[in-house]
Amino acid sequence: MPCFSCGARQTDPVRGASPWKRGVRREIQVLICPDCQRTHDLDLDACGSCGSSALICRLGEVECRSCGAVRLAGRRPESPQRPDGLADEVAAALDRVLGRLTSHA
C-alpha cells in the first residue's frame, strides 16, 4: 500500500519498527511515509472523544490508540447517530432477502 499523500511505496525496514505510520482518513486506513509525516496538514480523522489522530480502522470499527474509544466505521464523529447510506442499503437488502417487513424508506 502506498503513502496516501505522495504515493511513495513502502519498503521493508532494515531493522526494527517501520518508520511509516498508520492513520485513518475519511473512514479508511491509510499509510503515511516518513516524509509526509512532517507535513502538518494531513487531513486525518480525529477521535471524537480526545481529538487524537492516532486512529486505526479494522473490521468495521475505528479505534483510538490514545484513549481506546471505539466507534463503528461509517459514522462520523460529528454526527454519531447518523448511519451512512450504505448501512441503510445493506439493511434493506437483508430485509428483502430474509422476507422481513421493512420500515426503511
Can you characterise this structure?
The chain has 105 residues and is of the alpha+beta class. It has 2 domains: 1-73, no CATH class; 79-105, no CATH class. 17% of the residues lie in helices and 20% in strands. The protein is built from 2 helices and 5 strands; from the N terminus they run E-E-H-E-E-E-H. The chain has a 3-stranded antiparallel beta sheet with strand order 3-4-5, with no helix packed on it. Strands 1-2 form a two-stranded antiparallel ribbon. Strand 1 and strand 2 (28-32) form a beta hairpin. The protein starts with 20 loop residues before the first strand and ends in a 7-residue tail after the last helix. This is Ribosomal protein L32. Keywords: Ribonucleoprotein, Ribosomal protein. One of its GO terms (cellular component) is ribosome. It comes from Planomonospora venezuelensis.
Biggest sheet strand order reads 3-4-5
Gyration radius from CA atoms, angstroms: 18 Å
Mean pLDDT score: 81
Q: Give the quaternary arrangement of the chains.
A: single chain
Put simply, the count of helices is: 2
| Percentage beta strand | 15-25%
Could you say which overall geometry the principal axes of the C-alpha atoms support?
A: elongated
In angstroms, what separates the terminal alpha carbons? 38 Å
Which structural class do the helices and strands define? alpha+beta
Q: Which regions have little confidence, pLDDT < 50, spanning 5+ residues?
A: none
Strand tally is 5
The helix content is 10-25%
* Main β sheet profile: 3 strands, antiparallel
The arrangement of helices and strands along the chain is EEHEEEH
Structurally, how many domains make up the residues?
2
